[in-house]
Amino acid sequence: MPAKVGAVKVNNIGNSSIFNIGDVYTMRPESNAKTYAGGGSFNTGDGTYIRLGQSTTYVTDTDKADQNIIS
Question: What's 66's DSSP letter?
Answer without folding.
Answer: S
